[in-house]
Design brief:
Elements lengths: L8 E5 L6 H12 L2 E4 H15 L6 H9 L3 E4 L8 E4 L2 E2 L1 H5 L1 H10 L3 H12 L7 E5 L2 H5 L5 E6 L2 H14 L6 H17 L12 E4 L5 H15 L3
Parallel strand pairs: 1-6, 1-7, 2-6, 7-8
Antiparallel strand pairs: 3-4, 4-5
Helix pairs in contact: 1-10, 2-5, 3-6, 5-9, 8-9
The structure holds cytidine-5'-diphosphate.
Cytidine-5'-diphosphate (CDP) binds next to helix 2, helix 5 and helix 9.
């Protein structure tokens, strides 16, 4: 048996704007565990793709690009997404735009890209534990996770949350346009053949529409406590 399989993993999957990133980083900090923002890997790959002028449908070339990616994360607990460096350059602002989210979702539909990123994601599993957020953490990347959470919220609330986040970062998005883009991205993520966005059979679904961040964090930690000694 691979010794890394003994390292506990808590997975948080869900659609855009469900709160995975904010909640995941706080849960990881509370536990003193590592944190993986898997979506950021897809987003950074989208930035790298634009830098080298590759097409989003060129799965083989994108998979090759994954091997040469030099990514560094700086996890935050202030509600901000992790800061990201690509080959030493801070690309945090570029990766957070909704345009980059759309490109990330397009390349994420390529099976060759998902296969190439699999080992990179599993390498984040280091002692004492890992909190991993994304779309397929509980179904494909860490199927043996000790607790699997699927976060949801109504599409309107998710679009509003994303609108506020983007506005704070200086992006001038329009709420109606953003709602349409998020719906389109959810549809593509849920309908793709390779690791679609869907709860694992053994996941707990949490609707966060009417919950505060602190309530979501506490509810996840309570589930972990009830299922293990952490
Ligand atoms: O923050 P948000 O939920 O909007 O997006 P994200 O987690 O940064 O992910 C961006 C895109 O990457 C998603 O729309 C998915 O298409 C893709 N993704 C994926 O396919 N699998 C993952 N584990 C994480 C992200």
């Amino acid at each position: 048996m691979n010794p890394s399989n003994k390292i506990p993993v808590l997975t948080i999957d869900g659609p855009a704007g469900s709160g995975k990133g904010t909640v995941g980083q706080i849960v990881a900090a509370c536990l003193g565990w590592h944190y993986l923002d898997s979506g950021a890997l897809y987003r950074v790959l989208a930035v790298a793709m634009q830098q080298v002028g590759c097409r989003p449908t060129d799965g083989a070339r994108l998979a090759g690009l994954v091997e040469s990616l030099d990514i560094r994360f700086e996890t935050r607990t202030d509600g901000e997404p992790a800061h990201v460096r690509l080959a030493g350059v801070d690309v945090t602002a570029a990766v957070r735009s909704e345009a980059c989210g759309r490109l990330a979702s397009e390349i994420a539909a390529q099976p060759a890209v998902r296969a190439a990123l699999l080992l990179k994601q599993r390498a984040f599993r280091r002692p004492p534990g890992l909190v991993a957020d994304g779309r397929d953490m509980g179904t494909t990347v860490f199927p043996d996770a000790v607790v699997k959470i699927f976060l949801t919220a109504s599409p309107e609330i998710r679009a509003e949350r994303r609108y506020k986040q983007l506005k704070q970062k200086g992006f001038d998005d329009n709420l109606e346009k953003l709602t349409g883009e998020i719906r389109e991205r959810d549809r593509r993520d849920a309908e793709r053949a390779a690791s679609p966005l869907t709860p694992a059979a053994d996941a707990d679904t949490l609707d966060t529409s009417r919950m505060t961040i602190a309530e979501v964090v506490e509810s996840i930690l309570a589930r972990l406590r009830s299922r293990s000694a952490y």
